[in-house]
Design goal:
Length: 118
């Protein structure tokens, strides 16, 4: 039995970079404790607690289209629906919470088999 640690995803809308290229396909890895603890030390979180999610997502998204490293600027530039999608996707792969699928817009492209990680 093996543990999957990386999960592909497809953003509903996609990230539009400065050159006008749309990036929809990506990969998110499972989070470790450090991914959730380290952002709490970031001064941006002291000003806005919600920014912790931006930092966490920038740490666990390992691929997004043909972009290099995903950083907080990229996550901040996501459309709101894609940002929400990634928050839900994070909960599904890390905590096995398929209930978030009930709130998804019909046709949202969650890959098969991501509702309950093995």
């Amino acid at each position: 039995m093996s543990l999957s640690t990386e999960y592909p995803f497809t953003l509903p809308k996609g990230y539009l970079d400065d050159d006008g290229t749309l990036h929809r396909e990506g990969v998110m890895r499972l989070a470790c404790a450090r991914d959730e603890v380290e952002p709490l030390r970031d001064p941006r979180v002291k000003d806005n607690e919600a920014f912790v999610t931006v930092i966490v997502l920038s740490r666990v998204i390992t691929e997004l289209g043909d972009l290099g490293r995903v950083n907080t600027r990229i996550v901040e530039g996501l459309f709101a629906s894609d940002y929400q999608y990634l928050q839900d996707f994070y909960r599904i792969i890390n905590f096995g919470d398929p209930a978030v699928l009930l709130d998804q817009e019909p046709g949202t492209p969650f890959p098969e088999g991501t509702a309950m990680p093995a």
